[in-house]
Amino acid sequence: MAEEESQKKELLGLLSEAPAKASLVEKLAQDLQKSAHLVGELAPAVREYVEQVPATSLTPEEWSHQIKGWRSFNEFAGKVATSFTPSVSFSATSYAATSSSNTVVFVTSGVIQTPQMQNAEIKIKRILHRAPLLEEARASMRRLRLDQRSVGERPALDLLEEAHASLGTGPTPALVTLRESIWAAISQLNRRKPKQEAGSGSDMLTSIGRQCGWAHLDGSYFERLAVDWDILVRELSGRKQKAMSGQQVGELFDKALVFANALLSGIDKTRLKLS
């Protein structure tokens, strides 16, 4: 209990620092503004939500996962504010912190929400809905050549477009196809890494990151994404989709796009084989 309370306090402190860190970054350059603004808006809403979550609702490992994502963001924002760290790495770190925050809502879905938690979750959903998530995912897929057919499979971008076009036709077509798009991206990136390594699922993600991630990213960046993917893929796999409204499908679609952007923006295309 004491460990969970301490971890919750640490996470709340990191979330309190994040808007100020993001504000510093916004002043540096226009090309960083979108990523910094996203976190500057999102962190206070996430903080409102976490503040109401009982400490024992998350395991020490789950609290640690959240802390690592936001500590990485705050540290990276501080570096960007005093250096010329590539903006693409900062964008990736911003998306990864946001992806981690989405999982805290997933894993506390059984907790009775206080009014403050409900209001914070509404803010988070609105912020994500306003963000250019789909446009950035498309751009990243084109940058990484995931718009091209590979080994007889449909390109990840084709599946993404199909998933987006399926919104409004029920939960299964949109969410399952979006899951397939992300899997296709992971599979295609895995085949194009310099050296093949045994493993699947989480091991595959961390292997891609180790061989093809931006050098400026911290060592646990892709490990955290692997944890997020394990949680997200269950949400996309139809377990509760039959009872979902169109609005709920759209909200989960946005959260999946956050993960996709965190993954794709973390890849240095110069480290990938062409095919």
Architecture overview:
Helix 3 (60-82) packs antiparallel against helix 4 and helix 4 runs antiparallel to helix 11. The longest helix has 25 residues, at 2-26. The chain is mostly helical. The chain has two domains: 1-131, no CATH class; 132-275. The protein starts with a helix and ends in a 10-residue tail after the last helix. The protein is built from eleven helices and no strands.
Describe the secondary structure blueprint for this structure:
Elements: H1 2-26, H2 33-52, H3 60-82, H4 87-107, H5 115-130, H6 133-143, H7 156-165, H8 171-191, H9 202-212, H10 221-236, H11 246-265
Helix pairs in contact: 1-2, 1-3, 2-4, 2-5, 3-4, 4-10, 4-11, 6-11, 7-8, 8-11, 9-10, 10-11
Could you give the order of the helices and strands? HHHHHHHHHHH
Mean pLDDT across the residues is 88
Instruction: List the uncertain runs.
Output: none
**Approximate strand percentage:** under 5%
Total domain count: 2
Largest sheet: none
General shape: globular
Span of the ends, CA to CA: 50 Å
Instruction: Determine the number of helices (DSSP H or I, runs of at least 4 residues).
Output: 11
Based on secondary structure, the structural category is mainly alpha
Quaternary structure classification: single chain
Helical amount: over 70%
